[in-house]
Structure formats: structure tokens, C-alpha cells
Amino acid sequence: ERECPANYFRCNSGRCIPFSWKCDGDNDCNDKEDEPDWCDDSTTCHPSYFKCNNNRCIPERWRCDYDDDCGDLSDEENCVLRNCSESEFRCDNGKCISSSWRCNGEANCDDESDEANCTITCKANEFLCKSTNFCIMQAWHCDGDTDCADGSDEEGCDNVVAGLTCQRGQFTCQHGADCISPVWLCDGDKDCSDGSDEDPVLCSEFFLFIFKINYSSFPLL
Hints:
mainly beta, Low-density Lipoprotein Receptor, two-stranded antiparallel sheet, two-stranded antiparallel ribbon, 12 strands
């Protein structure tokens, strides 16, 4: 008969499981002998584990980690919150995240409080996505590609601009009644009659966006 090491429980099948798995609410032995009916307040967890109010045992390191590991939130009760630094934002659940993640269009707090009540102001040459509070290049508005996560940059793109209707996928020049291909943007030639396709500010932002996209596609070494 197989013997299990110390601090392990032997299932009827001969399988050895950590003793902390006994009476933890999960059926780790096939016939549930690790979860008998008498599992109650007498359950004892391993010293390195935390006992939940529902008698489940979880690793002590999961205590006060802002996740409901017990299933009854008892591992998140009476927690002493650490002080967030000046460069951090405190989520409503107490977790500290980088302040740069506040209102960045992505929920970095588990409760999404970092994206609540955000007021975003985009630059003159940028477009504000409706529901994600994220700015993209104005040139990407109505260019035929969905750049906003909510697709708002491609909504209503058959509008008449300056008396001219540009087709989907075309760039509308800022002050002239011109429509050009987006591949002509920042190519060194002024294809718009007002030269807005070669605007220095637009092009500097354009190449910065392209760099960020290309750079983010490579894994860190």
C-alpha cells in the first residue's frame, strides 16, 4: 500500500494530495473522501495556509491580495492597506497601480475604478474614441481600419466634409476640399492643396505612433 509523505492526505485510490486540500471545498479525490460531510469548523489548515470562513484553506500569500480566493471574501477582510506612493493611484478596492495607467483606456484595477470619471482631452490632430477614453491620430479617423477598440473611429464616415464626400479609407485634408490615399501621409510630398498631409506636428505624431506599434510587437529580451 502506497504511503504518503508527511502533511499529505491519502485518497482511497492511493493518490496523495496536500493535507491543506482536505475540506477545502474542492473534490480532489475522485470519491470525495477529502470532502466528507463532517467538514466543519473543526477543519485545520496547514500553518502556511489561511482558513476561510467557509472552512476552505488557501495559501497565506493569497490573503489581502485584492482577489476573492476564498469565495466568501473572508481572505480580504480586515486587511491593512499599504500607502500608495505619489506615483501610484489607489483603486476603490485598495490596490495601488501606476498613476500612468489612470484613464489610459484599459481597466488595470480589478474593479475598473481607474477608468471611472475620466476626462480626456486629445490634441488638435488627434481623435477621441467614444467609450474607451483613448486618443488616436486624427489621420486614422475614417481610414477604413478600426483603431478604436469600440470602433467609433469608423462610425459615420460617409459624412460630407467641406462640400466633398471622401470615400472610406481616404484621408480628408484639413482646410481644402481634397481626399487623398492614407499611404500619401507624411511621405515628403504635399498631396493636399493646403499641405496638411505633411504638417510637421501631424507627421511627428504619426511616426511616433508607428514606432510605438512596431516596438510593442517585439518581445522584451
